[in-house]
Amino acid sequence: MADLEIKGLHVSVGDKEILSGIDLSLNEGEIVALMGPNGSGKSTLAYVLVGHPKYRVTKGSIHFHGKDVLAMKPHERSKIGLFLSFQYPAEVSGVTVSNFLRTAINARSSSPMKVSDFVVKLKEKMSLLKMDSKLVNRYLNEGFSGGEKKRNEILQLAMLEPKIAILDETDSGTDVDALKILGEGITAISARNKMGVLLITHYNRILEYVRPSKVYVLMHGKIVKSGGIELAQLIEKEGFDSIRVEVRA
C-alpha cells in the first residue's frame, strides 16, 4: 500500500456527484501531477483530502499510512502531515505573515518553537524563494500580487514541512520568473524533506521545474488516463481533446 491511498472515491455537492470513483496513490518523496480541464474535479479532490465540509464523500476511502483520513477533522489531517496550497489564497487582515506562520507551526507541534529558531528558519526559506524580507511584516496576502501570494503559499509549505503537499494550481496567476522560482523551490523542499507532492495543474509549464514520476488525467470526475511526463507534453501540444478522443474510442 502507498503512503497515501485513495480508492473508489465518490464525492457529491448537494445532489450532484463531482467525483465518480477516483483511484490514486502517492508516496512520500514522490511527485505526481494531476491534470484536467476546468470542471473536471481536480480542486474537489484537493478539498476532500483536507476535509472541507462542503464536499460529501458517498463512497470509497482515503488512507494515509494506514489511517482512515475520512474519519479525521481538518486539523487532525494537518497534524498527520497533509497540507493544501490554495488556488486562491485568502487575505487575512490584521494577521502578519510572520505571526500566522509561527502560530501554524506551534499548533502542529507538541512544544512551541523558539523565536530565535523560527527567525533563522524563516530567513532561510524566504531566501530559497527569493522573497522580500519585508513581506513577513505585512498582513497575510493583503495587497499581495498573484506571484507574491503563491510564493507565500510555498513559504508556508517550506516552514510547516508536511509529509504530503497538495498544490492546487500553484502556477496560476504567476509570471515566468515567479513560476521558475516556485517550481525550483517545490522541488528542493520535496527532495530535502522527502515530501510527497500532488501537483494539480492545467499546464505542462510548471512541470519543466517540478518533474513528476507520474501524470494522471482527470475528466468528468474520473481518472481516464495515466502515464509519464510525455503525457503532460502531449496535452501541452494537442490540448485535452486528444485525450477525449482516445477515451471515447
Label this structure with key terms.
249 residues, 8 helices, 4-stranded antiparallel β-sheet, Rossmann fold, alpha/beta, 6-stranded mixed β-sheet
**Overall average residue pLDDT:** 93
Distance between the termini: 32 Å
* Number of H- or I-type helical stretches: 8
Order of helices and strands: EEEHEEHEEHHEHEHEEEHH
Main sheet specs: 6 strands, mixed
- Would you state the CATH class? Alpha Beta
| Number of beta strands | 12
What is the CATH architecture assignment? Answer: 3-Layer(aba) Sandwich
Q: What structural class do helix, strand and pairing data support? A: alpha/beta
What is the CA-atom radius of gyration, in angstroms? 18 Å
* CATH-level-4 superfamily name: P-loop containing nucleotide triphosphate hydrolases
The helix content, as a percent range, equals 25-40%
Principal-axis shape: globular
DSSP strand content = 25-35%
In total, how many domains does the architecture comprise? Answer: 1
User: Segments where pLDDT lies below 50 for 5+ residues?
Assistant: none
Give the strand line-up of the largest sheet: 6-9-10-3-11-12
Briefly note the CATH topology name: Rossmann fold
